[in-house]
Amino acid sequence: MKKSPQISIIIALYKESAYFYEAVAQCLQLDYPNFEILIGVDRGVKLNFRNPKIRVLETGLLRTGPAEKRDIGIIRSKAEYIAFLDDDSYPRRDWLKKAMNIFNKRPEIAAVGGPGLTPPMDGFRQQITGAILSTFWGTGPYAYRFVQKPERLVDDYPAYNLIARRKDLVSVGGFDNKFYGGEDTALCIKLVTAGKKILYHPEVVVYHHRRHFPEGYLAQVGNVGMHRGYFVKKYPSTSLRLSYFMPLFGIVATILLLLLSLVFPPLIWIGVFLYVLGIADAIKVSNWKVAMILPVCIYLSHLSYAYNFTKGLLFIKHLER
Q1: How many beta carbons lie within 10 A of that of residue 78, not counting itself?
Q2: Is the dihedral of CA 17, 53, 116, 228 positive or negative?
Q3: Is residue 214 reached through a cis peptide bond, with omega within 30 degrees of 0 on the bond before it?
Q4: CB 319 within 8 A of CB 181
Q5: Residue 177 to residue 183: CA distance in whole angstroms
Q6: What is the pTM of this model?
Q7: What superfamily in CATH does domain 7-210 come from?
Q8: What pLDDT, in 10s, does the model give residues 90-144?
Q9: Domain boundaries, the chain
Q10: What does the DSSP 8-state code read for residue 63?
């Protein structure tokens, strides 16, 4: 039997939390014989792990973003493969085994990503966020990042669930940016530009705890929108796409529909029809309590995204910290 190549799991720690310790504990239960866990932390952060599989790596600075912490891990790792997790996500037990099966069968693939599913224990307000992310009305053609969809080649994928050959990461210089959100977009562009292929596969699964709706999630999606608007200018090859403008167009269209309905009231039935479509979409991935309010929540999500997208597109000149 071929020896299982070593994999370094890199977790960029933002702050200690129950989710972070859950991530570490679940990693230690992985059904794979040869891995280590590298935790990137800022200077002065003390973690007391005694397991030999775990190494804590300080960046040497008081405040760094996820890209810088992950780059420290890439540099310090001697493994053949690097697996990235967020500090609020945890892997399914077969995560690494499924990924390695893909790498073994498809040597042309440089990186593999998979869905970040909503954990079943997440509370009601987190389930709302999970439903927004998992529906077409919430995230359009990018819902596959949050639910299991057919496999496909991609040119941009989040690092809450991304596994790559270390030699390919090193060859493009790692992340090498200071974005706090969107740092993975910059990495993927470098990989794709270098001729590397990134595969999404539905069986490479992690569970990603959701932000609470509305305050936590709307702040998060606003940050996503701001970076994406800025990336339209900085990385047009993957960000200058109609899909990233759709929430903004949707908000404008909704406002126009409301104004026109004041003149011609029957137009309001278009809004009712769209609301019902939103419920029908939501019921596929959530319970009826979430589904009934989800269209309103999606509208608020698009509003936060669109406002910050416009801000990033038109007014922000420099977004790296």
Answers
A1: 8
A2: positive
A3: yes
A4: no
A5: 7
A6: 0.94
A7: Spore Coat Polysaccharide Biosynthesis Protein SpsA; Chain A (3.90.550.10)
A8: 999 999 999 999 999 999 999 999 999 999 999 999 999 999 999 999 999 999 9
A9: 7-210, 219-314
A10: S
